[in-house]
Amino acid sequence: MNSDAIKELWIDTNDTLCVRPESKTFEHINRSPMGIAWNSSEGFLYPEDPGSLSHLEWFRQILIAVRSEYGCDLHLTLGTSWSNIEMSTRDAIEELDLDSEI
Q1: How far apart are CA 69 and CA 74, in angstroms?
Q2: Number of independent structural domains in the chain
Q3: pLDDT at 1 over 80
Q4: 3-state secondary structure (DSSP) of residue 86
Q5: Nearest CA to 20 among 93, 95, 83?
Q6: Which of 8, 39, 78, 98 could cysteine-pair with 20, CB 3.0–4.6 Å?
Q7: Taking a C-beta distance cutoff of 8 angstroms, is the pair 78, 41 a contact?
Q8: Looking at residue 35, which CATH number applies to its domain?
């Protein structure tokens, strides 16, 4: 399985969690039934219906969608940029372990 670092993670002015990968693109992620979309002009993933789940749940959903549709694991690094994310949400995101759930 290939992987890519998460370059940036933020919550925009519409309260939508956005995830920008370091180098990969996911143009066709919206074909999956997971509710994830790709902003091709700015290069980031986001939920199509952001209010239906928590930010943590959407982060998990984005990781699962990318893994199942593209065979790619997105991962946080020390260089990941965080913007407009509450510390409790950030802590929960950093503790998330998909491998123990699957």
Answers
A1: 12
A2: 1
A3: no
A4: coil
A5: 83
A6: 8
A7: no
A8: 2.20.20.40
Q: Is 24 helix (H, G, I), strand (E, B) or coil?
A: coil
Q: How far apart are CA 57 and CA 23, in angstroms?
A: 23
| Phi/psi of residue 47, nearest 5 degrees | -80, 140
> At 30, is the pLDDT very low, low, confident or very high (cuts 50, 70, 90)?
confident
Nearest to 24 by CA among 86, 66, 79, 83: 66
pLDDT at 86 over 60: yes
How far apart CA 64 and CA 35 sit, in angstroms, is: 11
Q: Which domain holds residue 6?
A: 2-101
Distance CA 93, CA 70 (A): 21
